[in-house]
Specification:
The structure holds 3 protein chains of 3 kinds.
Chain A lengths: L4 H6 L3 H13 L2 H10 L7 E6 L6 H14 L4 E7 L8 E3 L14 E7 L11 H11 L3 E5 L10 H4 L2 E6 L6 H4 L4 H4 L2 E4 L7 H13 L11 E3 L8 H17 L2 H32 L3 H9 L5 H8 L6 H4 L2
Parallel strand pairs in A: 1-5, 1-6, 2-4, 2-5, 6-7, 7-8
Helix pairs in contact in A: 2-3, 2-5, 4-10
Chain B lengths: L19 H17 L54 E2 L2 E2 L4 H13 L4 E5 L2 H4 L23 H7 L9 E5 L4 H15 L8 E3 L4 H7 L6 H18 L3 E2 L1 E4 L1 H5 L4 H21 L4 H4 L3 E7 L3 H22 L5 H4 L3 E5 L11 H15 L4 E3 L12 H16 L14 H23 L3 H6 L2 H18 L26 H16 L2 H16 L5 H9 L4 H12 L9
Chain C lengths: L8 E7 L6 H12 L3 E9 L1 H10 L4 E6 L4 H14 L6 E6 L6 H6 L4 E3 L5 H11 L5
Parallel strand pairs in C: 1-2, 1-3, 3-4, 4-5
Helix pairs in contact in C: 1-5, 2-3
The chains are: A alpha/beta, B alpha/beta, C alpha/beta.
Chain lengths: ~325, ~575, ~140
Amino acid sequence: MDPELLARFERGDRRALARLITHVEDGTPQGRAALRSLYRATGKARSIGITGPPGAGKSTLVDQLAAAFRKDGLKLAIICVDPSSPFTGGAILADRVRMKHLQEDPDVFIRSMASRGALGGLSRTTGAVLKVLDAFGFDVILIETVGVGQGEVEVVREAETCLVIEVPGLGDGIQAIKAGILEIGHAFVVNKADNPGADRVSEQILTMLSLNPNPPEWQPPVVQTVATRGTGIDELARQVRAHWAHLDAKSLRHRHLGQRRVADLSDILKARALGSASQRVLARPDFTELRRQVELGQIDPYEAADRLLPFDGPDEWRLP
Amino acid sequence: MTRNSKRPASSPTRARTADPSHDRWEKETLPKSLEKMPERRKSFVTTSGHVVERLARPDADAEPPERIGYPGEFPYTRGIYPTMYRSRLWTMRQFAGFGTAEETNARFKYLLDHGQTGLSTAFDLPTLMGYDSDHDYSRGEVGREGVAVCSLADMEVLFDQIPLDRVSVSMTINSPAAPIFAMFLGVAEKQGVAFSKLNGTLQNDILKEYIAQKEYVFPPAPSMRLVVDSIDYCMREVPRWNTISISGYHIREAGSTAIQELAFTLADGLAYAQAAVERGIDIDAFAPRLSFFFNAHNDLFEEVAKYRAARRIWARKMRDEFGAKNPASWLLRTHAQTAGCSLTAQQPEVNIVRTTLQALAAVLGGTQSLHTNSMDEALALPTEKSVRIALRTQQVLAHESGVANVVDPLGGSWYVEQLTDQMEQGALDYFRRIDELGGVIPAIEAGFFQREIAEAAYRYQKEIETRDRIIVGVNDFELEEPPIEILKIDPALEKKQLERLSALKARRDAGVVSRELGRLREAATGTANVFPHLLACARAYATLGEMMDVFREVYGEYTEEATF
Amino acid sequence: MTEQPHKIRVVVAKPGLDGHDRGAKVIARALRDSGMEVIYTGLRQTPKQIVHTVIQEDADCLCVSILSGAHNHLFPEIMKLLRENEVSDVLVLGGGIIPPEDVPGLKQIGVSEIFGPGTATFDTVRYIREHVQPRA
C-alpha cells in the first residue's frame, strides 16, 4: 500500500495515475479502495469506443481523431486493448507505434491494456480503468478495442459513442458488416477510402441501416476517411460532436450514466452475494465431506447444495 | 619430377563425340566474349601443373539440360559471362564512410591505394533519413554509421581528387536517393566529367526499406514515383549508371531465410520493372541498367544455389513475361556482401573465417562485385586494419584459391543443382502468394513480408538457444577474452559538420535556394520529372533536408503497422 | 475484482534513426512468450517519447535497443529524463551494438545491464524476472 498514491493522483500526478491503473488492472486492495473513493468523481468524461476488424487502421484513426479533439483544447486519454496470448498470458501491445504525434503532448495519456483472457474486445478491467481516467479529469476517453473481428459488442456497455470502422477490400462487404455491429454503431467509418470499393461499402452500410425496422432517434452517419493522410477526420470529429449534442439534448447521457451506475451496483451486489455465500458454505463443518460424496456420486449436487446453502427463493434461482 | 617443369602438363581432356550445344557455345558465344574481355592469362594451371579447362561439363554425349545451359547464355544459371573471372575478377568494393566528408575521402584514397577497384559510399543515418546534420533527430548520429552529406559542398569534399570518369562509385542511399544523386552529378559537373562517362550504382531500392530495413520516409506510392523519375532521367542523361540496385541484402539481415531473400528481392525487381513499363519506358532500355545486391551467408551450397536460381528466374521473367528482346536485359548482375548479421561479438577474429566462407559462396555463385565485412563489425565500425584484412580475404580468394580460374565450378553437382531447383521453386511459390495479395505494395501494406521475416528471425534465434544450431563462440566453444581494439568516432566531428553546414547556409544565395525549392515543390505536386529540379536545387547548394522537406510536405510521412 | 499476480510490463523501445528492428522484435516476442506484457514503441522514438511511454504504461522495465552508435548520446538523455520525472523504480536494460568499453559508463548512469549480440533471450527474461522491483 502506498498511502500517498491517492493524494498524488488527486493533485494531477500522471505517474500516480499510471500506477493506480496498474493496481486496478491487477485487482489489488489498493486498486479496489481507490475505485471506491474515486467513484463520485466519475461521469464527466465523454467516452468513445472504436471497433473494427484487424488492419482497418484503428490506431491511425484514433491518432488522428485525438489530434482533432486536441485542437479544441480537450484533454484526452486513450485506452488501447490488445489480445493476450491464451497460452502464455503474455502480450505485445503495439498500438502506440501509430500514435507518434500524441506521445509528447502533456494533455494526452495513452495506456495499452492486454485483454488478459477476456473475450469481447475489452479486458475485464477496462471499465474500471475508464473510471480512473474519468476521475483524473480527462475530457474525452477513446477506447480502441482488440481487432478480433465482429465480437466486440462489449464496448457499447462502456462507451457512450461507438465508432465502427470498416474498410474496402476485406472480403465480401455484406459478410464483413455483420448484424450486431450495425446496432452498436453511432457512426460508421469507411477508412482507406482511397481504395477501390469504398463507395460500395458505404452504400451497403446505408442500405442495411435503412432496413432497420425500428429506426432509432439517432441516424448513424457514414463517414469516409483516409486516416493515414488525415482526410475526412474533421468530418468524423464533427459527427462525434453532433452525437454528443444529441445525447445532451435528449438527456440520453444522463440515462446512459444512470444505467451504468445501476449496472455497477448490480456487479457489486453479485460479487458480494457470491462472496458471502461462499464464505458461509466454506465455514460449514460438513462441506468437505459433502463435496467428497458428490465427487464419488453418492449424492447429487442438488441435494448437497440444499444442505450446504438452504435457499427458499424462486425455483429458477434454486435449480439453475 | 624435374625442377624446371614450368611447362604445364597437358590436361586429361576426354575425347568427346557429338555435343552440338557445346560446339555452338564455343563457336558463337565464347569468341565474342573473348574479343571484348580477353582472359587474364594464356592458361590457368593448378598447383600440380594441370591446365584448368575453362568449363567443366557433362560426360561425352550428354548435353546439359536447358535449365543449366552454358555460361553467358540463357538462362544464365552458370553465370552471365562465358569466361567469368578468367577474364575479369569481380570488383572488390568495400563499403566505407564515417565522420565528415574529409575522413571518408581519406578512407576512399586508402582503399584505392590498397588495390580496391571501386568505391562504395556509406552515409550516416541522418542522411539516409533525409535530415540535415543540424536537425534535432540527428543529434548523436552525425557521421556515426557513415558519412554526413548535407549539400553539394559536402559531396565536393567527399570525392575530392577522385576521378569520377575512372572510378566507379556505388552509393547506398534509398529514400533520399534522388537528391543525393543530384548532388553527385553536381560534383561531376565541377570536375568537368560528362554525365555519359559516369559509372556506378545508386541503391535507390525503396521497396526493401518497407520490407526489411525500415529506412523509409514517404508512403510507397510517391516513393515509387521518385524511383521511376530517377530511372527515367538517368536513361536519358547518365546512360552508364546503374539506377537501382535491388537489394536482398537487408532483407536477409532483417532475419529472412535464403529463399525469402531470393523471392522478395526478385519480386521487388519485377515491381520496379512493371512500374517503369507503366510509365511508358521500354523494358530493353532500362532493364540492362538494373543490378542486384545479395547477401552471402554461411550455408555455402544454399548460398551458391541462391545466386544461380536468381539468374535463371530473372532471365525467364524478363524474356518470357516482360518480352525483353535485348539479351542484356535478361542478365541478372549482382553485387554481394557477406552477412553482417552472422558476425559475432564473441571471439571476433573468428569472423574472418566466416567472412571467407561467405565470400567463397558469393564467388562460386558468380557475383560481379563483392564487399567482405570486417571482423569487428558486431562491435563497432571497422578499424583500418580490420578493413584491410577483409579486403585481403578477397585477394586471397581471387589470386590464391584457384576458384577464379574456372567458370561455375559447382555446375552439374547433383546437390547444388537440386538446391538451385529448390530455391527457384520456393521463390515461385512466394511470387504466387504475393500476387494473391495484389502485388508487392499491397503485400507490404498488409505486413506480409514483415511477418514472414519476423517469423524466420524468431525461429533462427530459438534454434540457437535450443542449440539446434551451433554458432561457434556463442552457444558452444565459448571463451573469456579481452576486448579487441575498435574504431572510435571523434565526437568533435559532429561539431565540425554543424559548423560547416551553418557556414554554407550563411554564404549561399538564399534567394536562389528558395526559388529552386519552390520549383521543386511544383514538380513534386504535378507529374513532371522532379530530377532536373533536384539538380538545380543541388547546384544552388540547397541542403538535403530542405529538398526532402519539400517532399515530406507534398507526400506525407509513412509509419508502418508493427508486425510480429 | 479478484487480485491477479502482477504482470511484468516491459517497454521495448527503439530510439535512433536506423530501422534495424530485428533484435527488438525478437526480444519482444520472447518476453511475450514468457508471459510478460510488452509495450512496443516502434521505430525512431525520441528519449522524451520513450520516457512518456514508460510513465504512462507504468512499466517495470525498459529495454532499449540501439544499433546506430548513438548510445552514448541516447542513454544519458533517457536516464536524465527519467530522473527529472522522478522515475526511479524502472529497470533499464540496453541491447544492440554497444562496444564493451562503453558499458561501464552506461552502467554508471543507471543502465542495469547491456545485452549484446549473441545473448540468449532466456538470459534476458531471467534477468528481468530477477531484477524488477517487486510490486506491493
